[in-house]
Amino acid sequence: MTNSNLVRDFAHLRLSDAEDAGGKGANLGEMIAAGLPVPPGFVLLRDCYRNSMRAGGVTDELNAAHRAAMAQVGNPDRLIEMCEQMQTLVWKGGIADEVRDQVLRAYRALGDNVSVAVRSSATGEDGKDASFAGMNATFTNISGEDDLIEAVQRCWASLFSPRVVTYRASRNFGSDPAMAVVVQQMIASERSGVAFTADPSTGAEDRVVVEAAFGQGEVVVSGSVEPDTYIVSKEHRKILSTRLGYKSFKIVRGADGSDATIDLGEEEATAKVLSDAELLEIVDLALAIEKHHGCAQDTEWAIAGGKTWFVQARPVTTLHHATMPAPETHDVVARGLPAAPGEAAGTVRVLLTPEEGSRLRDGEVLVSQMTNPDWLPTMRRAAALVTDTGGMTCHAAIVARELGVPCIVGARTATTDLKDGMLVTVDGTHGRVLTGDAVAPRRPRRWTVPPARRPPSRPPR
């Protein structure tokens, strides 16, 4: 097993290593220590990034550029330009020879050109309390040494996307950023999803919320499909509710080894993903993780060949305790899953892509087909958010809760039922949209978040 000052096998990591391995890497080590089923892998500690940038001669220029960019978060166009320059510097810095050698040695130990997931893992100040959900890069079904090295560099470059820089500024993080990278053997997921050991929509800590879909879990965490949602009592392991979602497609490993999207017919799209026995096994394993850490956990799981694996775990960063809805004289025009609590009133603006965000006026209700972190620049100007797809545990819902934006997901037909200009009230606590203005005189808190830009998919030519 790999255990060095640069690259370390999961089995050699504990929570005390989170400063260098990031929360994802350290938590994987803790799960292995607790005897939980975790696919094998290793972590590039943050010194891999630091040593590579130093060897490439870009450290001082990159850190100075980052400090300057933090001061430009209110100037989106300038920030985009500065972030592109910083990402170019990361590619220029490259990967140090010693780092490359240790990474490839650890990769070869997994097997011959094994397919892996390569995930960013926030370290130091970035990794302590903030979720960074969905903001830094993740790449799945990476196979081969050259593709692995490129994926690592793409993760490093994602440190300097506009949305990450501004999020860091909003949390007053002032240190020079660095990143660990998790490399984990891929599971050929037949079904996958997330399990929260507290209800993220109500704050109730006496239950586990499980969301599930077919194929790889990215469709759940990205909010690109409406997953099944199961709620299970912790004390009695009783299934309290089951809500079947509409899983319009799945992502699997294609014949060429890369991600392949497969559309699902009506019967499979509406089929129940988990049997009761499978659900309760996931609940038991998630609760074992919670017991090991002593606090509520946000976990990701996958089922392949009849075996359940856990591929990530992190503390739940936000829990809001909901109250019962007050009696209303306003009609309910849409219902969905409560994803981020609060109430807000405004006129509807239906948008289909993040690029249409400029059409939304400050204080309008954003209605879209799906949520993902690319919507952040528009979400922070909206009074509330309603989407057709997604689940209450998707990355965008986590970020919406952290930013204080009321959010309903999985409303299914919101983009057709709600029309531009309608005055509505979004009750994100109870998952309903009401006609008219039914809000008490209060408004949700806002952060300023810049337009998102994905890290370059390839090194600059």
From TrEMBL:
<comment type="similarity">
    <text>Belongs to the PEP-utilizing enzyme family.</text>
</comment>
<keyword id="KW-0479">Metal-binding</keyword>
<dbReference type="InterPro" id="IPR013815">
    <property type="entry name" value="ATP_grasp_subdomain_1"/>
</dbReference>
<feature type="domain" description="Pyruvate phosphate dikinase AMP/ATP-binding">
    <location>
        <begin position="20"/>
        <end position="324"/>
    </location>
</feature>
<dbReference type="InterPro" id="IPR006319">
    <property type="entry name" value="PEP_synth"/>
</dbReference>
<protein>
    <recommendedName>
        <fullName>Phosphoenolpyruvate synthase</fullName>
        <ecNumber>2.7.9.2</ecNumber>
    </recommendedName>
</protein>
<keyword id="KW-0418">Kinase</keyword>
<dbReference type="GO" id="GO:0006094">
    <property type="term" value="P:gluconeogenesis"/>
</dbReference>
<comment type="pathway">
    <text>Carbohydrate biosynthesis; gluconeogenesis.</text>
</comment>
<dbReference type="GO" id="GO:0005524">
    <property type="term" value="F:ATP binding"/>
</dbReference>
<dbReference type="Pfam" id="PF00391">
    <property type="entry name" value="PEP-utilizers"/>
</dbReference>
<dbReference type="InterPro" id="IPR002192">
    <property type="entry name" value="PPDK_AMP/ATP-bd"/>
</dbReference>
<keyword id="KW-0808">Transferase</keyword>
<feature type="compositionally biased region" description="Pro residues">
    <location>
        <begin position="452"/>
        <end position="461"/>
    </location>
</feature>
<keyword id="KW-0460">Magnesium</keyword>
<keyword id="KW-0547">Nucleotide-binding</keyword>
<dbReference type="InterPro" id="IPR008279">
    <property type="entry name" value="PEP-util_enz_mobile_dom"/>
</dbReference>
<dbReference type="Pfam" id="PF01326">
    <property type="entry name" value="PPDK_N"/>
</dbReference>
<comment type="function">
    <text>Catalyzes the phosphorylation of pyruvate to phosphoenolpyruvate.</text>
</comment>
<dbReference type="GO" id="GO:0046872">
    <property type="term" value="F:metal ion binding"/>
</dbReference>
<feature type="domain" description="PEP-utilising enzyme mobile">
    <location>
        <begin position="361"/>
        <end position="431"/>
    </location>
</feature>
<dbReference type="InterPro" id="IPR018274">
    <property type="entry name" value="PEP_util_AS"/>
</dbReference>
<dbReference type="InterPro" id="IPR036637">
    <property type="entry name" value="Phosphohistidine_dom_sf"/>
</dbReference>
<keyword id="KW-0067">ATP-binding</keyword>
<dbReference type="GO" id="GO:0008986">
    <property type="term" value="F:pyruvate, water dikinase activity"/>
</dbReference>
<feature type="region of interest" description="Disordered">
    <location>
        <begin position="439"/>
        <end position="461"/>
    </location>
</feature>
